[in-house]
Amino acid sequence: MSEILRLESLGWRAAPVESDGVRYLRRDGAQVSYPRDVFDTLIVDGGQGFWLDARANAVGALCRQAQLSALWDVGAGSGAMAKRLVAHGVEVVSIEPLPEGAREIAEMGAAVFCGTLEDLELPSASLPAIGLFDVLEHLNDPRPLLLETARVLVGGGWLFVTVPAYKWLWSAEDEALGHYRRYTSGGIRTTLESAGFTVLTSRYLFASLVPVAALLRALPYRLGLQRAKPEAVLARNASRLQPGAAVNRVAAAVLSAESQVARRVHLPLGLSVIAVARAVPQPGD
Predict the structure, then answer these.
(1) Which residue of 17, 19, 44, 227 is surrounded by the most CB atoms within 10 Å?
(2) What is the pTM of this model?
(3) Looking at domain 2-279, which CATH architecture does it have?
(4) Angle, CA 24 vertex, CA 145 and CA 159 arms, to 5°
(5) Interval 207-217 mean pLDDT
(6) Given phi > 0 = left and psi -120 to 50 = alpha, else beta, which region is 103?
(7) How far apart are CA 198 and CA 179, in angstroms?
(8) Where in the chain are the domains?
């Protein structure tokens, strides 16, 4: 909780921790496209599986390179990234607008605010790093959140972003999960730069999974063969995030090998994009 105490020492006052472990800024849930039903289909305690692990490993490596010890996870879901980044030695404060997700994070013993970044009313230039992990695709207009992110980051503060890649990989899962778009590496770079960030890198993740996603999700969708009800699509998506032991071992090994390759060359495509940017120092910072 040192991040919260640090901010309080600057005069900011955090919402109190309530009996369920959550610091509530709102209780009704913000108007977000992420469906509440997802929390009924995802495993609690941060989830399991190769995809969540590999994503967190990529972010954890970037945090080590940046020598970061703390990060604010905005739109934290049910705590999948928070749980894993702690294992990488990063203190995480989570911000999640839906009470269902915030309570799951609190059950892990993690610090969590239920609300939006704007609800916190943080001082300008006060946070060292922010993560937006699979968040921006849920916003019809991501610019207000990005501008608030730029405001509360210290000059030179870090922003880590992951988003789903490629419009041609659009499928029923995107619709059921409330996505507005999928990005290219150049597209997310342009989005971040338009909000005033200096983008250090924007590259693809999960190249190995592109053929599988194209064949099992995107192609059937385009052919009109995948028109299940949203509940069924969410259940199917949850099962993919909870693979059997054998599948998990094989996929984890493949993605580990891919990450080794990605250290030497940028992957030409991927299922996700990961971007790292820094806030431009403001006058007086």
Answers:
(1) 17
(2) 0.92
(3) 3-Layer(aba) Sandwich (3.40)
(4) 30
(5) 93
(6) alpha
(7) 25
(8) 2-279
